[in-house]
Write a structure and sequence with these properties.
CATH superfamily of one domain: Tetratricopeptide repeat domain
CATH class of one domain: Mainly Alpha
Strand content: under 5%
Helix content: 55-70%
Structural class: mainly alpha
Largest sheet: none
Distance between the termini: 98 Å
């Protein structure tokens, strides 16, 4: 066999040398038929076809060899043959496509793109749109960094109806764009992927969260809903945030209940979410806050519940529902100081909303309790003006002078705490002393006389005649002398002075506050006496007992019982400093720093037994605030202490250090 082949080769070579090209080609063709994988002989045959000006036959021989080499992975040799083919037939797409693939495998992306673009152009030129689109898709998978080509491929797949492949292309782009730090472009690709494949739950969640982070609730709602969330806590939380921001409060409440049932510890995250959504949706934030408030109330922690609501109404002012609930909690929990502050906020909120009737009720209560506070009087005036009440100043003057039905109710004192005498006669007696002649030094009445109850049968003090100046006072030139009215009794007598409508309230207040020293007491003295008497008759004795009981509990090591007694004792102004400071220090021992700070702050607001006690407390409060990272509040405390006590302990050094922290020095 080998000898026959050698003979055939010699014969073909002789024919070539004698110029018989056609006969030589025939001999080589016979050898290829006998041995089709004789690639060297096939290559010679291809060359002979070229010499014989038979390009198609030559290309056919070269292509068989090149395809074999490409299949076997001999890419350089295959590439050389395809290039040889293109020299013969430059428009041969099969060779160009193979060369594009070989160039891509060799990392020659620019060459590869050139080959593919050439094929696409020719197909487009001859009207082969489907063929051109095929090349566009191929280009999309060529270079991972060519996102334009990848997007074009995805668009082409979508136009062809292959939405699944198009969505996968966009999904792949999203991951690669994120890796390259192109977040905005990545989200754009993901939006396209989800548009083409709405069942892409992970993509919907990611888009929804991104929209929430941007504050675009409407966009978030396109991707997230209860159906998508299922029972996944993370998705439910995201849907809840969307509902809170978009006003779906009922749905949000349902989701919160579901989340808390499965994981009560998520309450902290819900409260944190409240602060995030508060600016955009105060009502939604209140839904979250109520969750924490309900939990604290269920555990009997009225102070913690109130603290949460206080922070909320501080961050989001004018929220009437929150303020109303805070007042209720303060009443139930005995949080007196917080309740009064909240009532003032509630009155302001009603005024802001134009609800004059509600504002009037609260303002009257505040003025009745603290008539010396001009802010309360101003609230009362604004409410009256809002209700179009004629001559508001005259009505306020009536109330302050005791002529109108104007009695504050104190939810923190039981009726029996007042003994036999209600608070109203005490106020009457204080007002009576305001315009009563001063006793001579040797005629000073004993303290017991001041405590004597005033009954309804007691005759009212005589009213001054109209225009009569108060004893011991001469009105300045040009100032009318306006007498103070006696408080009404069960059987009032007609006033002997002009009606309230003729009184200028501002002038009355000015006269009361600026009266010259003489036989009458000034307004501050009268109300100091008034507050003193109220304090004596409304729980001071009970507070002292509770304070003593707390100390006994502490000696026995019963700190929880002591803290309960101290909270009761702290309600009385006279014992507030000692009880609150003891409570703060007990909380500090328990490492409950928020409550320790709160009670020390309450103590700091109360009168201290001595300057030393006040300074020591401020120092402890400032140190605790500094230790918890509250640098601005700590600095304020130490600055106050420094202004009062100068070089007290290491206050100067602390002020200097905290100032540097505040300024970034």
């Amino acid at each position: 066999m080998a000898s026959a082949r050698e003979e055939a080769l010699k014969k073909a070579e002789k024919l070539l040398r004698t110029g018989k090209l056609d006969l030589a080609i025939a001999e080589y063709a016979k050898m290829i038929e006998d041995q089709p994988r004789d690639w060297n002989t096939r290559n010679i045959l291809g060359d002979l076809y070229v010499r014989a000006n038979q390009p198609d036959k030559a290309v056919a021989q070269y292509e068989q060899i090149a395809d074999h080499l490409y299949t076997e992975g001999f890419f350089p040799k295959a590439g050389a043959l395809y290039k040889k083919i293109l020299k013969i037939k430059p428009d041969l797409e099969s060779a160009q496509l193979h060369l594009g693939d070989i160039s891509a495998k060799q990392g020659l992306l620019a060459d590869a793109k050139a080959y593919f673009v050439g094929v696409a152009s020719r197909r487009r030129a001859r009207g082969d749109k489907a063929g051109a689109d095929e090349i566009v898709v191929r280009l999309g998978s060529l270079d991972p960094g060519d996102f334009d080509a990848r997007a074009a491929a995805a668009q082409t797949l979508e136009r062809a109806g292959d939405t699944v492949a198009a969505a996968m292309q966009y999904r792949s782009m999203h991951a690669d764009l994120l890796e390259k730090g192109r977040a905005a472009d990545a989200m754009g690709a993901l939006r396209e992927a989800v548009r083409l494949n709405p069942d892409d739950t992970a993509g919907r969640v990611e888009l929804g969260k991104a929209a929430i982070a941007e504050g675009n609730t409407e966009a978030a709602k396109q991707y997230l809903d209860r159906a998508v969330a299922g029972s996944d806590p993370a998705l439910l939380f995201a849907v809840m945030e969307i509902e809170l921001r978009s006003g779906g409060l009922d749905t949000a409440r349902e989701i919160i209940a579901e989340l808390l049932q499965s994981d009560p510890s998520i309450r902290t995250r819900i409260v944190d979410l409240a602060w995030t959504v508060a600016a955009a949706s105060p009502e939604g934030a209140f839904v979250c806050i109520n969750t924490a408030v309900d939990a604290e109330l269920a555990a009997g922690n009225y102070m913690d519940a109130a603290a949460i609501l206080q922070e909320f109404v501080t961050r989001v002012s004018g929220q009437i529902d929150a303020l109303l609930r805070l007042v209720e909690i303060c009443v139930d929990g005995g949080l007196e100081a917080t309740m009064y502050e909240t009532q003032a906020q509630l009155a302001d909120a009603y005024l802001e909303r134009g609800q004059g009737l509600e504002a009037r009720v609260i303002a009257e209560d505040l003025v009745a309790r603290e008539p010396w506070e001009h802010a309360h009087i101003e609230r009362f005036r604004r409410a009256l003006e809002m209700l179009d009440v004629p001559d508001p100043d005259a009505i306020i003057a009536d109330r302050l002078a005791g002529q109108g039905p104007f009695v504050a109710t104190d939810p923190f004192m039981a009726p029996e705490s007042f003994g036999e005498e209600p608070a109203e006669p005490i106020l009457k007696r204080a007002e009576d002393r305001l315009h009563a002649p001063a006793a001579e030094p040797h005629d000073e009445a004993p303290p017991a006389a001041m405590e004597a109850p005033v009954t309804e049968d007691a005759p009212p003090p005589p009213a001054p005649e109209a225009g009569q100046a108060r004893e011991g006072r001469t009105p300045p030139p040009g100032e009318p002398d306006i007498p103070l009215r006696p408080r009404a009794t069960a059987a009032p007598t007609p006033p002997a002075h002009p009606p309230a409508s003729d009184i200028d309230l501002n002038q009355v207040l000015d006269q009361m506050g600026n009266a010259a020293p003489g036989p009458t007491q000034n307004l501050d003295e009268v109300f100091n006496d008034f507050r003193s008497e109220i304090s004596k008759q409304t729980g001071t004795h009970e507070a002292a007992e509770q304070l003593g009981l707390a100390k006994t509990y502490l000696e026995m090591g019963m700190s929880d019982e002591a803290m309960t007694a101290l909270r009761t004792a702290a309600r009385a102004p006279g014992h507030r400093f000692e009880a609150s400071s003891m409570l703060g220090r007990l909380y500090l021992k328990k490492k409950d720093l928020p409550h320790a700070i709160e009670w020390l702050e309450r103590a700091a607001e109360a009168p201290a037994p001595s300057a030393n006690d006040a300074r020591q407390l401020l120092y402890e409060l400032g140190a605790l605030l500094e230790a918890t990272g509250e640098t601005s509040r700590a600095l304020a405390v130490f600055l106050e202490l420094q202004a009062d006590a100068g070089e007290y302990r290491d206050v100067a050094a602390r002020v200097e250090r905290l100032s540097k922290v505040q300024t970034g020095g």
